[in-house]
Amino acid sequence: MTSTTTTAVEQLSATTLLRFATAGSVDDGKSTLVGRLLHDSKSVLADQLEAVEHASRSRGQEAPDLALLTDGLRAEREQGITIDVAYRYFATPRRRFILADTPGHVQYTRNMVTGASTAELTVILVDARNGVVEQTRRHAALAALLRVPHVVLAVNKMDLVDYRESVFAAIAEEFTAYATELGVPEVTAIPISALAGDNVVEPSAAMDWYGGPTVLEHLETVPVSHDLTGCHARLPVQYVIRPQTSEHPDYRGYAGQIAAGTFRVGQEVTVLPSGRTSKVSGIDLLGTPVDIAWTPQSVTLLLEDDIDISRGDIIVPSDDTPATSQDVEATVCHVADQPLTVGQRVLLKHTTRTVKAIVKEIPSRLTLDDLSQHPEPGQLVANDIGTVRVRTAEPLALDSYAHSRRTGSFLLIDPADGTTLAAGMAGESFATEKAKAAGADDEGWDF
Fold first, then answer.
1. E-strand stretches of 239-324
2. The pTM is what?
């Protein structure tokens, strides 16, 4: 490896990583925006661009359709829409990115949940000619529900409204008011034209009234905290290591990825759900003993006492233990084609633990258009979001999703064929003023 290559690798390793998702109504230009970002940031290989140009010409288009850089399915290309979540990786000298281009159709709302569940930022597009529509409000509500810390409102197709500042200002004001009602901690509004490239990577000469950052500038500079060391320390046990060799006759380690927080040698810990306690006698990281480890490192903990621990247990600090319960109340996004019904037997997967469960109640279904609750719907169908009460066969240690997206989330699974039925989030649905007053979330979301 040459010195120039080594320097480039070192610089890339030093940059931070941002996961972000795009969302918006049909034909708002999500895929075109992503294609423009990739093209103008010089993140497209020559053969990829050539393939897009060829496909565009075959469809009778003079200019290359940059949306084809992300719309990879044949049905997407034929219909000119996005159907599935398209993940793309690109990088600039300042930051690395993993983006999820999500569909805009109502029937693909569950795909947006998948794409935004791990995102630190969501770009919600609005057609400047149409303003805030029903699907815009739906995606804003989903971003709030999934506790995405940063939301960007990209008012697209400004070239079709003569780049008028008044159009942008009205849309930005309406959306920000709605997002604030949902409890979204931060909204950044940017006027753009993805097709023409205005304010995507380069500033627009046609909108000299706008003095804010371009989309790429904001993506490169938005503060992203990957520091979960101050959160509740949690280690879901994935595997129990017992070599029983002559070199390690008594070795018994508990391996897994630290979901949040920090563990230290000598720290008093509790194993849940059993409640047994011990002290950390050692920490192995990549085969090397260390005194301290933090998220998201994969480690092996050794304890002073030989206690019964197995896959699915969670090791936590003794002075910061979550409550365990067999009764789970949460908001779920239903993602399966088959409905979720009261009395249905399911499997609940939380971190590395999977337990049998039964749906006891479905108290309400959320109407995302106006945030109203439809009481006692009896079932949830594909793309529905509602509140459920589930009784598990064994106690679980769930945190509130507002405090930990990793240990506050779970999946409901069909025990017959392993199909994922719903994605669940424990605790309050939205960080509304009422929830904040109750102490669910004091200073916004920072995951």
1. 239-241, 253-257, 262-264, 268-272, 276-285, 288-290, 292-294, 298-303, 314-317
2. 0.79
